[in-house]
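Appendix B, Record 12. Input sequence as logged:
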Amino acid sequence: MTNDLIQKDAVEIRSLLIAGDITPLDLIDALEDRTASIDPMVNAVPTQCFDRARHHAKTLMAKPMDERGLLAGMPVLIKDLSNVEGVRSTMGSPIYADLIPDTSDYVVQDLETAGGIVTGKSNTPEFGAGGNTFNDVFGRTLNPWDLSKSAAGSSGGAAVALATGMAWLAQGSDLGGSLRNPASFNGIVGMRPSPGRVASGPSANPFDTLAVEGPMARNVADVALMLDAMAVHNPHVPISLETPPSSFLSAALNANKPLKVAFSIDLGITPVDPAVAKLCHNAAETLARHGVDVIEAHPDFSDAHDVFQTLRAHGFASSMDDLYRHHRDLLKPEVIWNIERGLALTAEQLADAERKRGAIYANATDFMAGYDLLLTPATIVPPYPVEQRYVHHCNGVDFDTYIDWLAIAYAITLTSLPALSLPCGMTDQSLPVGLQLVGKPRGEAKLLSHAHWMETILGRMATPMTPKG
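Logged structural output:
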């Protein structure tokens, strides 16, 4: 029964729960068995809380079925940047290595209110900084398609757990691609929703529109189901959007072909590995053969590098200045660099970055008025050796900083447009590659509908899978 359950999609699992054919305890047992056999190979879920999950499940099962919430007892994984009450929550940092929080973050509260049951914390780089999941508390998370490769980050543990059947649904977060990059590297789906769509916090920067929480799963419909559970208005969050009147899952299942899409291999700002470019071009050609009007075009992102670097650094400085002053010796070099760059910014630099971001947003929204989607690679490289802290160069171009290789994702972050990574094929070395789908402003429903149609055309990865050496 364990293997049968692991192989099923989340939408089907939820239907079985509602029908009473299985219980949340059956699912917890299945995940505990799967995690015990798989996680020692990949180190994706270093903190597990199955006893807490069983207690939560029994409390939920004492309620009538119509009071068990949207997820009805579905297990979920939480990224180790979000606090879960009573569960070790480290942020991947030695500073918080032994923290047991008294309260859960808003996103966890919303998922549990919706009938989600937390079974563990997924691994993340220290404070989510960087596109490779490693830290001094738990070590490296390995890519299951090739254990010598990076899982990307910062939601790397979540993506690996999904790909290998240690979760059906996982929460992640995204600033510069932290949902989209690991989704691409691991052959699953990760969605960055519009800022405010999912309530984030409590936070020192409650007005932040760069970092968002979002859903991850093995397919588009399951991502939509989880977004339904996460997209809840929270009056404590100043940018929180109203709870949507209709279901994202219904929108996804009503799969609609996009009529006209823009396609850009590089957004005019980044090199791209030839293997990635080939697969993304193949995906665009496949869509064209199925009647989609594919136009090679993109908005103007010429200022994206400077704008993102400045605003990201400001965010690090404003939220982590106290940690820097009192625990600098415990922070990794990349985090120190980000904070120090932020502390050195001038008012003129910040003002310039805000003005230019406004122009990027205006340009992108005007551009998207003419297209159903903008398509790009989700990442510019296939999975790289896990020993590398980050990608230093690509296709003959050397990068100046540890985040330059993420430009194709963080350029979209600046627009506040919803985006997701959808698997689009495997390289000659059998490594997954994702296609980034960017939707219209606050257009999650249509984005999911188009993504589900594209998933039927491009195919899904063979997940859940057993890690390969």
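The longest helix spans residues 304-327.
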